[in-house]
Design goal:
Length: about 180
């Protein structure tokens, strides 16, 4: 038996709440959480489904039956996905016009991907036909975390998301496509 925190009752040592007065019995010490620095985060081994995109990684956006867009993680801040505007010539960094973007319902300014620390987030830009992450429609202008092996659908155009290890010969430049 132990004393209740109120000091008036004796309770069993395994009790979480005093059965007499209802006070929460806390016997655990609260430890502080150590903060990790960026170099410790880069050593994390990524697995399928991970949200961690370390500095020595590539973001690969693969369009079904088409090419892939490659981005060096340390160069990503924010970029749009959509299709070229034929009237103005303005085009997003990831231009899906060549993949029948218009026919598949991709808006000119469809979605945006942003990097926040070691995490990528996607947001729909109030597109006409919606942005879907793993089958779930995104609410416009609300960020959602992108993970390795996610499926991103813009209208009816599907993009597979991959995080890959950067090889020593890879450049640190912005987007490239193959």
């Amino acid at each position: 038996m132990i004393d209740c925190p109120c000091g008036r009752n004796k309770i069993h040592e395994r009790e979480v709440i005093c059965t007499y007065c209802g006070i929460l019995v806390s016997r655990r010490e609260h430890a502080t959480t150590r903060s990790l620095n960026d170099t410790e985060l880069d050593d994390i081994v990524t697995r399928a489904g991970t949200a961690h995109l370390g500095a020595r990684r590539l973001l690969v956006l693969g369009v079904r039956d088409g090419q892939s867009f490659y981005f060096a993680a340390n160069e990503i801040t924010e970029f749009e996905i959509g299709r070229k505007d034929p009237a103005t010539g303005d085009a997003p960094l990831v231009d899906l016009a060549a993949f029948n973007g218009a026919g598949k319902g991709v808006s000119r300014r469809h979605a945006v991907i942003r990097r926040q620390d070691t995490v990528l987030k996607v947001s729909d830009l109030n597109s006409a036909n919606g942005t879907f992450l793993n089958g779930h429609r995104l609410v416009a202008h609300q960020d959602r975390i992108l993970r390795d092996d996610d499926e991103l659908r813009l209208g009816f155009l599907v993009i597979n998301v991959k995080f890959e290890q950067m090889s020593p010969g890879d450049s640190n430049g912005a987007a490239a496509s193959k």
